[in-house]
Specification:
The complex is a heterodimer of chains A (355) and B (332). Chain A contains 9 helices and 20 strands. Chain A is α+β, with helices and mostly antiparallel strands. Chain B has a single domain, classed as Aldolase class I (TIM Barrel), CATH 3.20.20.70. Chain B has an 8-stranded parallel sheet.
């Protein structure tokens, strides 16, 4: 156990790593998952027992798995590669982000959006069943060292890998604005944000406080009139430990959650990029992290670049091996083709050559 | 104690199990995963360590993880770096998958400094898979690799459906197959394995041409040409339209190809195509393969190759087989 933990580089352990954005120095840990091929130092095969599997509506399911190895070695933004069935019909695993971790219990949580046959099989599996996982995998979020004001932008299911980042930043006392975008209120609700009690009265969902997506933000959630939810920083020792962060170092800050839907059925009507543009214009953001539809991420990367804000994006590619061996998952970058499963899924936005 | 040692065209393997080119990188990623799974297995409650592969991993005689294998076969390497194909590169199919990787690789020079360097200390024979656009390119890759003591054998890929020039073009014409084989033969005394394509009318014709031109062994089969369509977009999923089908879906095709080529030539064969279980591997041996490679199954269960090594030995013990070589071509 101690052996495993020692393989997890802590924040700030690599001061010589390349910088992330417009002249900002000291992106920690960025080199860990870069060039070397045997980089998956912590990835292992792990049989995971499904503890619960709950439909949240709008095609979204919430799974809790018992996966002690993954729970203790995972860093925000990393993923697991899940095998579907024991038969030979479906050969390829499915990559899924871990959206919450409970280290002491050895649990990890997933949010799965049903897309095709693979995800349908995964959500059809019942508690007690064992899923075969490889993880934790990939390069997670690497916020610049000393980040003070972060903007997190999730589109739909893309909120999942941002949740643990949000929690980490909250623990570190970083001020954050979290923009959550969804098609409509039903999807927003499924992602765990709220039940809307008829448009104007936004009320926290009863189970929200325990829900993975915004668990990092919800410890002390206070409703704001402006449509944002004012959040005090989350802080528990357990979370601090899970992220390799000293809980005693937690500072205070404040954070805002911004909701936006395509149809305006909850939060603002419009796009995440509209709000991001406005927020960036207020200045002072020193980190933007985003996951969701690639066109959205691309716009955000451009906005961040224009604002001089370091930006990381999380890209999805079809994956066969998940560990760097097969070259199925490549992303075009300024340094040639890189593998999303080891050099990503989180990339410095400036190195991505968008297709 | 069964003898599992086989001789593949001059390359001695301590068991008949290797991995299929392109599905295993150069081994480092899988070695790290195996190592970590072993470490984690030791901290897990006994209840979770039930599969034989987990036990195999904790077997002390496999201290260097890759040394469990009879050989490691590397991803295809070419003279210059190749970028591979743009766009979507894989698709799942019923009991199979399509790939359109396009032989992306860093070129032979980088391959020698990075990939081979790691394999030098791995305690396992190395089969280097070689590709080229022209006969001369194959030759020059081998020339460079001749300076590397870590190389145990060459597998000449004249059967990749995923590149425009070279690749499968050489493997579908007996004269071209013979010409590439003969050229490679002049460059090395090391075991030369020529990898055959199933996308031909008569695979034995190509096999005999390669044999006559000096091949020491043949490997088969490479992927079967196929395609996938994105219905919504009414477009082919892959930029080059064609992809290579692999996995259990192609096993019967591969098995039949091995059986026919075994009848048609005197060369030892490296069989592959959909092998995922001990039974699959045994069937290939009986059809005539001296050794077998695990490809797509590495993705489904990354411990497959280990499982096969352990399972093969167990099967032989259970069935009173003294020497695995008794099984090769034992089809009655
Ligand atoms: C690093 C990473 C993290 C992810 N995290 C999540 C998550 O937390 N929650 C979630 O719901 N989804 C997530 N996804 C997307 C998820 O992997 C796909 O939706 C899923 O693989 C679709 O499988 P399917 O069989 O249902 O769909 P199909 O479309 O039938 O799948 C066909 C094939 O394409 C692959 N594929 C299809 N869409 C994607 C995609 N977007 N990304 C990668 N492979 C794809 C499948 O794996 C399968 O091999 C993530 C993807 C990546 C790469
Ligand atoms: C992702 C992928 C990449 C491959 N790359 C190569 C390659 O570089 N050179 C080669 O000769 N064959 C390559 N192959 C073919 C395999 O080595 C093997 O011949 C084929 O997949 C059949 O075996 P399988 O069904 O066990 O996968 C590749 C196959 C896959 C699936
Ligand atoms: S999925 Fe195999 S290299 Fe990324």
């Amino acid at each position: 156990m101690g052996f495993l933990m020692s393989e997890v580089p802590l924040q700030g352990a690599h001061p010589s790593a390349p910088s992330l954005g417009g002249g900002v120095q000291g992106v920690s840990g960025q080199s860990d998952f870069r060039e070397s091929s045997s980089v998956q130092a912590t990835a292992a095969l792990e049989p995971c027992i499904i503890l619960s599997s709950t439909s949240r509506g709008a095609g979204i399911w919430h799974l809790v798995l018992e996966a002690p190895h993954c729970a203790k070695s995972l860093r925000p933004g990393q993923f697991i590669h899940l095998r579907l069935t024991g038969d030979s019909m479906h050969l390829l695993r499915r990559p899924l982000s871990v959206c919450a971790v409970d280290v002491s219990a050895g649990h990890i949580e997933l949010l799965i959006q049903v897309k095709g046959e693979g995800t349908r099989l995964l959500v059809a599996a019942r508690p007690g069943q064992v899923l075969d996982a490889i993880g934790p995998l990939g390069r997670g979020w690497q916020p610049p060292e000393g980040v003070r004001r972060a903007l997190l932008v999730g589109g739909g299911i893309g909120c999942a890998p941002l949740a643990p980042l949000s929690r980490q930043l909250a623990v570190q006392g970083v001020e954050q604005h979290f923009i959550m975008g969804a098609r409509d209120a039903a999807l927003m609700d499924a992602l765990g944000v709220l039940t809307l009690g008829k448009h104007q009265s936004i009320a926290p969902h009863p189970v929200m406080a325990s829900h993975p997506v915004i668990a990092g933000l919800t410890r002390n959630l206070v409703l704001e009139s402006a449509g944002g939810l004012r959040v005090k920083p989350a802080m528990t020792e357990e979370i601090g430990t899970s992220l390799g962060v000293d809980a005693s170092g937690v500072a205070t800050g404040s954070s805002l959650l911004h909701l936006v839907t395509d149809d305006g059925s909850v939060g603002r009507k419009g796009f995440t990029t509209d709000i991001a543009r406005e927020l960036l214009a207020t200045g002072g953001f020193d980190y933007l992290a985003t996951c969701g539809p690639e066109p959205m991420q691309r716009i955000l990367a451009d906005l961040a670049y224009a604002a001089g804000t370091p930006c990381e994006v999380s890209l999805e590619r079809r994956m066969a091996c998940g560990i760097g061996a097969c070259l199925s998952c490549v992303v075009d970058t300024t340094e040639g083709k890189k593998r999303a499963c080891v050099n990503g899924p989180v990339f410095d936005a400036r190195e991505v050559l968008w297709s | 104690m069964t003898n599992l040692t086989v001789n593949l065209g001059g390359m001695k393997m301590k068991n008949p199990i290797t991995v299929a080119s392109g599905t295993f990188g150069s081994g480092a990623d899988f070695a790290a995963l195996w190592e970590q799974t072993r470490a984690q297995g030791q901290t897990q409650p006994q209840a979770q360590m039930t599969s034989p592969s987990r036990e195999a991993l904790t077997n002390p005689r496999h201290e260097k993880p890759l040394s469990i294998l009879g050989a490691v076969t590397t991803k295809g390497v070419s003279l210059e770096p190749w970028a591979g194909n743009p766009g979507t590169r894989i698709a799942e199919t019923a009991s199979g998958m399509l790939n359109s990787i396009g032989l992306q690789n860093p070129g032979v020079e980088a391959f020698c400094t990075h990939d081979l360097a790691c394999l030098t200390t791995a305690d396992v024979p190395v089969i280097v898979n070689v590709s080229g656009h022209t006969k001369d390119e194959y030759l020059r890759v081998i020339d460079r690799l001749e300076r590397e003591p870590a190389v145990g054998a060459y597998e000449i890929n004249i059967s990749c459906p995923n590149v425009d020039s070279g690749g499968m073009a050489f493997g579908t014409d007996p004269a071209a197959a013979a010409a590439v084989t003969a050229a490679c033969r002049t460059a090395t005394k090391r075991p030369l394995i020529v990898k055959l394509s199933p996308n031909v009318t008569d695979i034995t014709e190509i096999a005999r041409a390669a044999e006559a031109a000096g091949a020491d062994a043949l490997s088969l089969i490479n992927t079967v040409a196929g395609m996938a369509i994105d219905l919504q977009a009414r477009k082919a999923v892959f930029a080059r339209t064609v992809g290579g089908l692999s996995g259990p879906a192609i096993k019967p095709i591969a098995l039949y190809a091995v059986q026919r080529v075994y009848q048609a030539t005197r060369l030892p064969l490296l069989g592959m195509g959909g092998i995922a279980s001990v039974e699959d591997a045994l069937e290939f041996l009986i059809a005539g393969a001296t050794a077998v490679a695990v490809g797509t199954a590495n993705f489904t269960d990354p411990l497959t190759a280990i499982r096969l090594v352990e399972g093969l030995e167990q099967w032989c013990t259970d069935n009173g087989i003294q020497d695995i070589n008794e099984l090769i071509g034992a089809l009655s």
